[in-house]
């Protein structure tokens, strides 16, 4: 087994065994605590520019299945695991993790103390790293790591968005979550489908699948699409997708979002939520090590109920002070588009996790209602979005 | 939501004695629930008949009733205490069943007691298989094709639908009792009959077999706001077809994709909602088809369970504690996460290690029982291990079992087999057979199969164990092969020194890999041909890369800092143990439950921890039994969830450097470690290892007895068969024989003549100088006495003198006993007291000590001295109202008994009777006659003002309610006939009808008893077994002498067990029962709490 080294910008070194594609790679090192779903994570465009450390001790157990991709290919710059299974076991698996990483050109490392690395990132924050199977000189790798550009303010979206708009027609099929189709508001299935335009900031396919499950006609457009073009398409609703990096790096989308705000029902997810926040005038900030996992509790401030959510973000929208200090139950803040209210907060760190417009049909969440990987607790949000479109259509 | 203000007093029901399927896990859950409710300011009334539980400690609840858990008794308690609510979900199936009874008889309504946690309807929906199936249909989930039947005919008709193999499951039983897999018609009919009998409601489910499907369990929590979280997905290593309690199980689930897992998760959430478990935890089992992912719901337990205890220990999420808080109205987001302090209980734990649970079996105790694992649980205990990968956790779990296997060793002499070596055909066949049979040893046989090059496809086809797990086992074997190969290549003959193999860089990597894969030093030593210590010493001297580290169980995969030192060992880069510089003491626990070593020892360990906390000493607990209170991270300051082997314990001692270690509370397990620990320089607290050895070593013990001029039965040590015959002849038959150093009377037997002795030696025991045979004079008709005493080194207090109901020769763990004695004279009691003090002083006991005496013809003999906590410590403590184990812990740290306020034997007015509980219903064809080999799994306590009622309560708590009238069938051996007359006359006076077999009947008639004669089995029909089968008998008395008569009468005893009819196999036993029946006629049932027995 050949050696591999991971070096962090702060000089911490991890020696392990080479996994996947033989080479060298750099990225921001973040950890993900989900126990299932490594394939979805690898193919999630939001991981562009990042090394993912899986905290779960065995990765690759069930191999790789064709249906479980979240985009055309992998995006993570590197993959770090405690132990990669040499033989996958699952009826749908057609490839081992190692083979898949090799094929996709993802440099990986295994056999390092991922718990130590995770604790280190937790205490010292996410930071750049370099991983190599070829250069095994630790000092050289540290230097390289220190030279990795910061993600702050960088535009990562343009690297992952589609080059031209396209229609998406495939749903979740047998993997549709219960109550996951729009059967809860039966009308949609009989009447004309809702046409939804999805801004692709790095969209996960499951967002598209879930929209199709809800009987939507889906058009995906590139991140740079202007408000004018969208108005010409004249959809029933708008989805601002997830995506990688610092929202301020994609601030070119903000004027278009501002233009479209309130025009048609809008659903923001993850980066889409952050861009919406910026559009509303709420600044974003970088979290120490982000939220990456499938067990994040989020409270719906209206019902005081908790949903377990799938999360993957390094940045967050600042909770508006006016909302923070307003009376319990009515944490409303004013914007150019009328009053908005925070709807969801993280139970772990009180981070803002969701917003709605009080007068405008706008809904956005920091987490992933499409799951994949992760729990389906929040799939109701798609139904709410459909409901908004239904109401809006009148 | 805030907690409920309308409730003040809550009744909590425990699970009673330890039986197969219901063990310490319900003490763990009950204790957590009780503490949580008290903390919230509620008054807790608690009932549990098991004195060895922590939950029944009088400090824990406001009112503690050590009384039988029956509808009648609980009603009496409700009537007295008037609780506002009843929490039925903490005491296993026992508590649920009693709750159902209380509801159905209108008692809850009558006293206006509200059910919290789970409603009657929810319990019914989950427990009644038919209702459950319908509920699953409603929410679109599949259950196995099945039919509920009430008679055999319907069962047979349904065979056309399900085909073979068919699963037979009785309703409302625990641990799958009475369940079976039938492969043919004959088996099917037999199993249906049995299941109809076992089901308390006479209903049996006939079900399509899903053998070979993957099996999963999800632990689900729900609160009043309908928030639902999954605490942990658990995957069974063994596929469907083996009861999950008998399966090796693994957390987290290993072979499910996210898409598949989310389907299970969605289903679990739907199920808990549909069944309507309002608050608390449930356990839901699923089967998944490995071919296409199809999912089927197997069952749900609407309560905490063995699996929820496991999930709690596996993740650090205390399910029972949180369930109790949810039951009184809190929601998950209002409860903080104990481990991180900064997050809430409303989340799903994620783990960055692997947890393996492995069952421990005791088939060797039950001659004639079938060790094949099926749908009915047969294991008596379990061990759990954590590791950074499956291989490490698995091998740690294997050595945690304490079955003298230090890892995935070979069972077929293949420990040095290297790929390409020759193998004998019979070895090949033996391994093949071992792999095929779904028996406890199968994992080891698979290891041997892999050594011999069996393909994983072949192994999968035979075992249905997922290829992922098989691959993991192969990685273990591959690592072992690399070590062996390197040894061979080096051309070294055994033994190879670790330095020869592991010094170069390849060797270093190899050793590192072996340690990472969970190889113990002993196992590595085995491969090299040296001892584990040699490997350990070498590793310590070349420590740079092979040093153990400890990681914390933190519920969150390191996302948040763990505030709780709940630790497991692994070979990582960073150690998170962070030992303190406080004064600290390590307590070694008892490991997995087994017959002879169970919850009683855990009770003592927990008390030791509590006592240390009292006096401000930091406690370090080491144990590997996930069911227990001792492995609750709340119990001690620091918890190491580790195997109790020399290597694993020494690693902890090296890290922690405690001022001392306590070995006298965890039973034989830590005691065995006393000498190695002392040799390694770890101070042993309390009685010295040398004193322990003086009591354990037969020759040194005899010298001790001689020195003190005391008496023991004549005895000798035989190192060969011939020597044994000579000694037995010299002593005079009957003699008791057993191998040296055993616990729970393993392979102990009374032999009456030389022929039997020859048979015993030939069939049972390899007698050699290494394994000598102990031969003791058997004292006929002697009374056995058990004494627990405590000493501070200069002062000894005799805490309790217990008189056994059954005669000496029956294992003390299996006989009933009474505290205080019910028939011993003052003079004998005084002699016992004086001898106890003399022995304690001579052995310089500091802490607890237990002595077994036999009294024959007014002479006192010493049978055994154990300078450690005994099985009876909790029983005595609860009877006399003194926490003996706590005091003992303090004496070990230099406190005098005087300073602790315990200087003389307590006087009290009540009587406590301990009764043992046996797993005979689980093992068909096993004889129930009591003997010197212990076979009980648990015990109960009956407490009352007189012996009769105390005995009656103990019987009832043990599951045999004595009748007040009816028919008694008596068939006794010749020597018991005289003693039977008085018993029969008393029964007759009490209004019983007496039936007896010819010889007995004649004798009784001659002495004025009105007897109806019944046929013995061989004398034609109807015979007495027919009467028992037809439930025309209400008590069965059957004593036998010789082996041949035992065989003849086996069917009598088996049938009584199967029908649940009180049966007695000793005259002493029936005599006590008659006293009880007389007492029951004289006074009505009364209940009284421990707090009232011992007002403070």
Number of strands of chain A: 20
How confident is the prediction overall: mean pLDDT of chain A? 94
Count of alpha and pi helical runs of chain A: 12
How many structurally independent domains of chain A?
Answer: 2
Helix percent of chain B reads: 25-40%
What would you give as the CATH superfamily of the largest domain in chain A?
A: Class I glutamine amidotransferase (GATase) domain
Note the overall shape of chain B: globular
Helix/sheet category of chain A? alpha/beta
N-end to C-end Cα span of chain A: 64 Å
Low-confidence stretches of chain B: none
Share of residues in helices of chain A = 10-25%
Kindly report the oligomeric state of this protein: heterodimer
Question: In whole angstroms, how far apart are the ends of chain B?
Answer: 37 Å
Return Rg of chain A in Å: 21 Å
Strand order of the largest sheet of chain B: 14-13-10-11-12-15-16
Low-pLDDT stretches of chain A are 182-188
Which sheet architecture does the biggest sheet of chain B show? 7 strands, antiparallel
Biggest interface pair, residues each? Answer: A-B, 57 and 59 residues
The assigned structural class of chain B equals alpha/beta
CATH topology of the largest domain in chain A: Rossmann fold
The shape of chain A, in one word, is globular
């Amino acid at each position: 087994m050949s050696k591999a080294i991971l070096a962090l910008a702060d000089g911490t070194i991890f020696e392990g065994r080479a996994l996947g594609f033989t080479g060298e790679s750099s990225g921001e090192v973040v950890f993900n605590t989900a126990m299932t779903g490594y394939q979805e994570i690898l193919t999630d465009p939001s991981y562009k520019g990042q090394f993912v450390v899986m905290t779960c001790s065995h990765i690759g157990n069930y191999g790789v299945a064709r249906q479980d991709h979240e985009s055309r290919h992998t995006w993570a710059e590197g993959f770090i695991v405690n132990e990669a299974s040499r033989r996958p076991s699952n009826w749908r698996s057609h490839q081992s993790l190692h083979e898949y990483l090799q094929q996709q050109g993802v440099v990986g490392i295994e056999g390092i103390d991922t718990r130590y690395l995770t604790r280190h990132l937790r205490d010292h924050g996410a930071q750049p790293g370099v991983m190599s199977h070829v250069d095994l000189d630790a000092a050289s790798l540290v230097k390289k790591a220190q030279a990795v550009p910061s993600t702050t303010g960088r535009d990562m979206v343009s690297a992952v968005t589609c080059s031209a708009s396209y229609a998406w027609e495939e749903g979740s099929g047998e993997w549709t979550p219960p109550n996951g189709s729009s059967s809860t508001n039966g009308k949609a299935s009989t009447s004309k489908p809702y046409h939804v335009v999805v801004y692709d900031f790095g969209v996960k396919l499951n967002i598209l699948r879930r929209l199709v499950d809800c009987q939507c006609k889906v058009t995906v457009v590139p991140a740079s699409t202007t408000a004018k073009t969208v108005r010409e398409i004249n959809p029933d609703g708008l989805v601002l997708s997830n995506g990688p990096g610092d929202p301020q790096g994609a601030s070119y989308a903000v004027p278009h979002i501002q233009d479209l705000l309130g025009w048609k029902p809008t659903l923001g997810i993850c980066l889409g939520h952050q861009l919406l926040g910026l559009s509303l005038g709420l600044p974003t900030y970088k979290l120490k090590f982000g939220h990456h996992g499938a067990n994040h509790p989020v409270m719906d401030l209206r019902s005081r109920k908790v949903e377990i959510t799938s999360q993957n973000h390094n940045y967050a929208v600042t909770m508006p002070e006016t909302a923070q200090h307003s009376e319990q139950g009515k944490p409303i803040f004013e914007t150019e588009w009328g009053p908005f209210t925070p709807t969801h907060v993280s139970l772990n760190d009180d981070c803002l996790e969701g917003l709605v417009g009080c007068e405008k049909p706008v809904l956005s969440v920091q987490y992933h209602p499409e799951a994949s990987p992760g729990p389906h607790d929040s799939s109701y949000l798609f139904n709410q979005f459909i409901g908004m479109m239904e109401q809006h259509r009148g | 939501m805030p907690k409920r203000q309308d409730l003040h007093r809550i009744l909590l029901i425990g699970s009673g004695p330890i039986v197969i399927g219901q063990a310490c896990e319900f003490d763990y859950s009950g204790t957590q629930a009780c503490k949580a409710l008290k903390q919230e300011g509620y008054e807790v009334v608690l009932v549990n008949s098991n004195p060895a539980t922590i939950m029944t400690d009088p400090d824990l609840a406001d009112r503690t009733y050590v009384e039988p858990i029956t509808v009648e008794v609980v009603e009496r308690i409700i009537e007295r205490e008037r609780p506002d609510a009843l929490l039925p979900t903490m005491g296993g199936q026992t508590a649920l069943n009693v709750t159902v009874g209380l509801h159905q008889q209108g008692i809850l309504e009558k006293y206006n007691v509200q059910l919290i946690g789970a409603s009657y309807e929810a319990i019914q929906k989950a427990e009644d298989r038919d209702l459950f199936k319908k509920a699953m249909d409603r929410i679109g989930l599949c259950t196995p094709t099945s039919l509920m039947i009430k008679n055999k005919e319907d069962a047979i008709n349904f065979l056309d639908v399900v085909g073979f193999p068919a699963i037979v499951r009785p309703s409302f039983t625990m641990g799958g009792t009475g369940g079976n897999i039938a492969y043919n018609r004959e088996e099917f009919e037999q199993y249906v009959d049995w299941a109809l009998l076992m089901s308390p409601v006479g209903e049996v489910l006939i079900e399509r077999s899903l053998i070979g499907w993957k099996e999963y369990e999800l632990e689900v929590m729900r609160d009043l706001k309908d928030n639902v979280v999954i605490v942990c997905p658990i995957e069974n290593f063994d596929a469907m077809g083996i009861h999950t309690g008998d399966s090796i199980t693994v957390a987290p689930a290993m072979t499910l994709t996210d898409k598949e897992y989310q389907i299970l998760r969605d289903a679990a959430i739907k199920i808990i909602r549909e069944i309507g478990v309002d608050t608390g935890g449930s356990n839901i089992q699923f089967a998944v088809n490995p071919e296409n992912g199809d999912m089927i719901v197997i069952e749900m337990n609407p309560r905490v369970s063995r699996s929820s205890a496991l999930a709690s220990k596996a993740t650090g999420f205390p399910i029972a504690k949180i369930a109790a808080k949810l039951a009184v109205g809190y929601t998950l987001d209002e409860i903080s996460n104990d481990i991180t302090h900064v997050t809430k209980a409303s989340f799903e734990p994620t783990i960055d290690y692997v947890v393996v649970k492995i069952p421990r079996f005791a088939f060797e105790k039950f001659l004639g029982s079938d060790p094949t694992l099926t749908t009915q649980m047969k294991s008596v205990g379990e061990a759990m291990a954590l590791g950074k990968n499956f291989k490490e956790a698995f091998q740690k779990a294997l050595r945690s079992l304490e079955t003298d296997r230090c890892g995935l060793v070979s069972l077929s002499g293949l420990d040095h087999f290297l790929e390409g070596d020759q193998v004998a055909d019979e070895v090949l066949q033996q391994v093949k057979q071992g792999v095929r049979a779904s028996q406890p040893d199968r994992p080891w046989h698979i290891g041997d199969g892999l050594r011999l090059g069996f393909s994983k496809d072949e192994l999968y086809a035979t075992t249905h164990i997922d290829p992922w797990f098989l691959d993991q086992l192969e990685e273990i074997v591959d690592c072992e092969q690399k070590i062996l190969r390197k040894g061979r290549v080096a051309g070294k003959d055994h033994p190879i020194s670790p330095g020869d193999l592991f010094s170069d860089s390849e060797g270093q990597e190899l050793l590192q890999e072996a340690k990472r894969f969970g190889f113990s030093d002993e196992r590595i030593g085995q491969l090299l041909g040296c001892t584990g210590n040699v490997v350990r010493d070498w590793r310590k001297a070349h420590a740079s890369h092979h040093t153990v580290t400890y990681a914390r169980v933190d519920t969150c995969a390191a996302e948040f800092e763990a505030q709780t030192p709940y630790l497991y060992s692994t070979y990582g880069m960073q150690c998170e143990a962070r030992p303190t510089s406080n004064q600290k003491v390590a307590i070694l626990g008892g490991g997995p439950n087994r017959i002879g070593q169970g919850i009683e020892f855990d009770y003592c360990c927990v008390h030791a921890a509590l006592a240390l906390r009292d006096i401000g000493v930091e406690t370090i607990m080491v144990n590997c039994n996930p069911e227990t209170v001792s492995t609750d991270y709340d119990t001690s300051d620091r918890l190491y969830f580790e195997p109790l082997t020399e290597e694993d314990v020494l690693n902890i001692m090296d890290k922690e450097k405690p001022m001392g270690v306590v070995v006298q509370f965890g039973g034989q397990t830590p005691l065995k470690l006393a000498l190695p620990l002392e040799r390694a320089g770890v101070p042993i607290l309390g009685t010295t290892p040398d004193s322990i050895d003086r009591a354990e070593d037969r020759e040194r013990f005899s010298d001790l007895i001689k020195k003190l001029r005391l008496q023991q039965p004549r005895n000798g040590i035989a190192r060969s068969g011939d020597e044994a015959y000579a000694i037995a002849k010299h002593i005079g038959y009957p003699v008791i024989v057993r191998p040296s150093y055993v616990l729970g009377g393993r392979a102990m037997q009374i032999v009456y003549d030389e022929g039997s002795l020859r048979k015993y030696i030939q069939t049972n025991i390899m007698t050699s100088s290494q394994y000598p045979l102990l031969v003791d004079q058997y004292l006929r008709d002697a009374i056995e006495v058990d004494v627990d005493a405590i000493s501070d080194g200069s002062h000894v207090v005799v805490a309790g003198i217990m008189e056994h109901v059954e005669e000496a020769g029956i294992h003390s763990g299996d006989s009933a006993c009474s505290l205080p004695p019910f028939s011993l004279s003052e003079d004998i009691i005084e002699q016992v007291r004086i001898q106890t003090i003399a022995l304690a002083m001579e052995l310089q006991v500091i802490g607890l000590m237990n002595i077994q005496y036999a009294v024959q013809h007014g002479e006192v003999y010493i049978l055994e001295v154990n300078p450690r906590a005994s099985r009876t410590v909790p029983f005595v403590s609860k009877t006399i109202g003194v926490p003996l184990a706590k005091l003992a812990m303090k004496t070990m740290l230099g406190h005098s008994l005087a300073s602790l306020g315990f200087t003389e034997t307590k006087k009290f007015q009540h009587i406590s009777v301990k009764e043992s509980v046996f797993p005979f219903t689980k093992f068909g064809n096993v004889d129930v006659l009591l003997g010197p080999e212990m076979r009980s799994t648990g015990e109960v306590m009956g407490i009352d003002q007189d012996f009769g009622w105390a005995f009656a309560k103990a019987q009832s708590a043990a599951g045999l309610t004595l009748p007040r009238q009816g028919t008694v069938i008596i068939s006794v051996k010749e020597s018991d006939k005289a003693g039977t007359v008085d018993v029969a006359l008393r029964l007759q006076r009490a209004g019983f009808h007496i039936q007896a077999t010819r010889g007995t009947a004649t004798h009784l008639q001659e002495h004025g008893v009105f007897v109806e004669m019944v046929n013995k089995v061989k004398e034609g029909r109807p015979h007495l077994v027919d009467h028992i089968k037809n439930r025309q008998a209400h008590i069965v008395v059957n004593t036998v002498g010789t082996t041949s008569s035992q065989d003849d009468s086996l069917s009598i005893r088996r049938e009584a067990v199967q029908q649940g009819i009180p049966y007695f196999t000793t005259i002493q036993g029936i005599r006590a029962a008659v006293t009880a029946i007389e007492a029951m006629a004289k006074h009505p049932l009364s209940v009284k709490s421990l707090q009232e027995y011992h007002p403070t």
